[in-house]
Write a structure and sequence with these properties.
zinc, heme biosynthesis, 322 residues, zinc ion binding, TIM Barrel, two-stranded antiparallel ribbon, single chain, Delta-aminolevulinic acid dehydratase, binds ligand PBG
């Protein structure tokens, strides 16, 4: 008998057979585009560390959403940069808050575009931490109160899904109850469940003007060395009522994505974060990597690991190819 019997190369020999056996297919349904909104009119501030991304005022944000929607983007994740910040992030709970304004304006023009709000205090506090600071650290239980208020206010503005990214203990349950009490029992929660204290958020903090003014986020975000703990975080969020769970960042945490998917079989999102995006852009700008190929490889690998949906700044660049 000829050797070797098994030749895996046989099915790799033509494009058609390669397509036939492809196990992971990226589609338009899989991607969520993050966008940054700030006050003003006609404002389009480029985010230097994230080429192709801008802080937009509401009017231009609506235009951007139309452009994305026409390309096939079905969902965007909104981050707000407010006019004024305060100690507790209460500015994020106002009826006329920046994301609330953006939500109403987008929904008026594009009722079909699915809007997700990142719920956290770090963009809204003077100190840049994700909650109310007491004795030099973020106080868990008083932060829950602002997170609950922020979520209800966003629901009232017409958001389609709430995504808490603060990493306080008990926040999913607290927000679920706040939403239910205000007649939003059908509002889904996508929890940033396993969110790591990551250096990959660097460019985002420029984009959202949310860098902590002292200390770091290690007392609430997870240690990158831990994976069993991620399972406990996800388990808690599911118990508290999360409809979808998330692992963030994505690329250095593909093992966590796979573990979470296998252990819970929950709808799973992965966040391909700012630093992951910017590294690709920077290397591509220098001609060191092929941007188009590497981007598809990155996104495909996240889906292969087990993510059902991916939040990615690459969305606007790849959507038309899907
Ligand atoms: C808010 C938040 C952050 C990101 C998403 N939501 C920043 C942080 O936790 O410091 C990071 C997203 C990215 O890097 O693309 N807490």
């Amino acid at each position: 008998m000829a050797f070797p019997i098994t030749r895996l190369r046989r099915l790799r020999s033509t494009e058609v057979s390669r397509n036939m056996i492809r196990e992971t297919q990226l589609t338009k349904n899989d991607l969520i585009m993050p966008l940054f909104v700030r006050p003003g009119k006609g404002v389009q501030n480029p985010i230097n560390s994230m080429p192709g991304n801008y802080q937009l005022s509401v009017d231009l944000l609506v235009e951007k959403c139309k452009e994305l929607y026409n390309k096939g983007v079905q969902s965007v994740l909104l981050f707000g940069i407010p006019e004024h910040k305060d100690e507790h992030g209460l500015v994020a709970c106002e009826e006329n808050g920046i994301v609330q304004q953006a939500t109403r304006a987008i929904k008026k023009e594009l009722p079909e575009l699915f809007l997700i709000a990142d719920v956290c205090n770090c963009e809204y506090t003077t100190h840049g931490h994700c909650g109310t600071v007491i004795d030099g650290d973020v106080d868990n239980d008083s932060t829950l109160i602002t997170l609950g208020k922020q979520s209800v206010s966003l629901a009232q503005a017409g958001i389609d899904m709430i995504a808490p990214s603060d990493m306080m203990d008990g926040r999913v349950g607290f927000i679920r109850k706040a939403l239910d009490d205000h007649h939003f029992a059908n509002m889904p929660i996508m929890a940033y469940s396993a969110k790591y204290a990551s250096a990959f958020y660097g460019p985002f903090r420029d984009a959202a003007e949310s860098a902590p003014q002292f200390g770091n986020r290690a007392t609430y975000q997870m240690d990158p060395a831990n994976s069993n703990e991620a399972i406990r975080e996800v388990e808690q969020d599911i118990i508290e009522g999360a409809d979808m769970v998330m692992v963030k960042p994505a690329l250095s945490y593909l093992d966590v994505i796979q573990r979470v998917k296998t252990e819970f079989n929950m709808p799973l999102c992965a966040y391909n974060v700012s630093g992951e995006f910017s590294m690709v852009k920077a290397a591509a700008e220098r001609g060191w990597v092929d941007e188009e190929r590497i981007t598809m490889e990155v996104l495909t690998s996240i889906k292969r690991a087990g993510a059902d949906v991916i939040i990615s700044y690459h969305t606007q660049d790849v959507i038309e190819k899907l």
